[in-house]
Design goal:
The protein has 483 residues and is α/β, with parallel strands linked by helices. It has 15 helices and 27 strands. Strands 19, 20, 21, 22, 23, 24 and 27 form a 7-stranded mixed β-sheet that branches. Strands 2-9-1-10-11-12 form a 6-stranded parallel β-sheet, with helices on both faces. The chain has a 6-stranded mixed β-sheet with strand order 15-13-16-18-26-25. Helix 1 runs parallel beside helix 2, helix 1 crosses helix 14 and helix 4 packs across helix 5. The longest helix has 19 residues.
């Protein structure tokens, strides 16, 4: 077995991208590589070849490793659907919910299944690159942990700690992590990586040396700010607040940031288009009247997010946009919201209940216990596409389907005026032909090219940078020391 684990001094320090970049760098060296994350918490997910779901970051890492997606790459996925409860997905399948009352006990019992997945992966490849979650410095969560040191010690996997210098205080972050950890946990950490550095590396030489001296860990490298990361899909919703809005004559696509937004990377291919500006709308901000297209994204709690849309007054903006001749696209939960009614009689996503939808599509949705998970291909708007379904609702009605899959099934609905479209298919905007057909309807031309090729090229660029700035040979040697 050969394996190495990246843990962070906190969330959003760049672990996911570094794991993806290392996977691609090792694959480019001719090694068989697999990514692994014991426990992930995210509403951005992907459908695997074995018919389950894993976190979107692990899907990107598998792409980087040139490996087929498999549920063993992320055996435990928590999908937040309320402030204190998450849907629990184990080996790609829903297994109930975890809340504040049963969180620790629920996690602890999953460690054997996590280790089984890890063992299956290590038997299939030369090296497994593992991503932690959050930070081992969160010692209040150490009991029952399966995401960081609980896994690392159980599996005997050496750890490298990642610190983010861009947010400031990285010396204290790394050294402070060392000081609060249990000595046996700290002994699993063999070094650190400093990420997101801007400027002249010589200016941080003294700081780098101070971390080595005060922590007792060796440094594996100083990674510069990687501009190519913007071409990669992001998993964490925190990035949505970092968007920008540009003036000029670009076509504006507006997307409200829902409290339980899911799979917002569906919009990423539109960001490649030079004539398109994707504007993420935070709470307290109206949807701009100049938008040509409003996208209602996926949601992990459709009724709750529909209530949030009304509380923000976004329903008024959406209906006014449609009356002015604007287009609306709903994806998955967003599709359900565009209908006449949504019912959750079993309380699948929260308290049982139902509510009127926005009424722009003549469909109704009932949420049920079974979850549709599958990869699909088909045609919509006169263009071919590929994508995946991931939903628990069943929607009926609608005379005009949005798409037809290759297996003959129909998907989604289109309004009589053709300006409101709904679909259960995630990822379809990544298809060049369909994205071009949608933009043509809006009076714009597509020049974004092949989205998948762009992501692949970005992974190669990140891998090349890591080969230059990390001691990759030392990381491989450390991985081969795994017990």
């Amino acid at each position: 077995m050969a394996a190495i684990m990246l843990q962070g001094t906190g969330s959003d320090v760049g672990k996911s991208v570094l794991v993806a970049g290392i996977c691609r760098a090792l694959a480019n060296r001719g090694l068989r590589v697999m990514p692994f994350k014991p426990q992930n918490m995210s509403n951005n997910a992907a459908v695997t070849m074995d018919g389950g779901e894993i976190g979107r970051a692990q899907a990107l890492q598998a792409l980087a490793a040139r490996a087929a997606l498999h549920t063993d790459m992320n055996p435990v996925l928590l999908k937040p659907q309320a402030d204190r409860t998450s849907q629990l997905v184990v080996h790609g399948r829903v297994r109930g919910t975890l809340g504040s009352g049963n969180f620790r006990e629920g996690r602890r019992g999953l460690l054997p299944e996590v280790l089984e997945s890890f063992a299956r992966l290590t038997a299939q490849c030369d090296i497994v690159v593992v991503e932690g979650a959050g930070s081992p410095a969160e010692i209040n969560l150490r009991e029952g942990d399966i995401a960081n040191m609980g896994f690392a010690r159980a599996a005997g996997v050496p750890v490298v700690l990642v610190g983010d210098i861009d947010r400031g205080g990285v010396i204290a972050s790394v050294v402070g992590t060392r000081s609060v950890m249990d000595p046996q946990d700290a002994a699993m950490i063999h070094g650190f990586i400093i990420n997101k550095f801007r400027g002249d590396p010589a200016l941080f030489a003294d700081g780098y040396a101070a971390i080595e001296e005060r922590s007792g860990w060796r440094g594996f490298g100083l990674v510069p700010w990687l501009g190519d990361v913007v071409r990669l899909p992001s998993e964490d919703a925190v990035v949505l607040e970092k968007g920008r809005r540009v003036g000029g004559d670009r076509l504006i696509v507006a997307c409200p940031i829902l409290p339980r937004i899911a799979n917002f990377d569906d919009l990423d291919p539109l960001k490649m288009e030079s004539g398109v500006e994707v504007v993420m709308i935070p709470p307290g901000t109206p949807i701009p009247a100049e938008a040509s297209l409003i996208v209602l994204p996926g949601s992990k709690a459709t009724l709750a997010d529909l209530a949030a849309i009304r509380a923000q007054g976004w329903d008024i903006d959406i209906l006014a946009h449609h009356r002015r001749g604007g287009a609306v696209l709903g994806i998955c939960g967003g599709y359900q919201m565009l209908g006449r009614r949504i019912a959750d009689p079993l309380g699948i996503e929260g308290a049982p209940g139902e509510a009127a939808g926005l009424g722009l599509l003549d469909v109704t949705t009932v949420l049920g216990e079974s979850k549709m998970l599958r990869q699909v291909r088909g045609e919509a708007l006169g263009a071919g596409f590929a994508g995946y379904e991931m939903h628990m609702g069943r929607t009926s009605g609608g005379a005009l389907p949005f798409a037809r899959f290759d297996d003959g099934q129909q998907d989604g609905a289109v309004s009589a005026d053709g300006r409101v479209m709904g679909t259960y298919c995630h990822g379809l905007l990544g298809s060049t032909a369909l994205r071009g057909a949608l933009l043509a309807r809006l009076g714009a031309a597509s020049d974004g090219g092949d989205y998948a090729a762009g992501v692949d090229a970005a992974l190669d660029a990140v891998a090349a940078a890591l080969e230059e700035h990390l001691d990759m040979d030392a990381l491989i040697a450390l991985a081969r020391r795994a017990a």
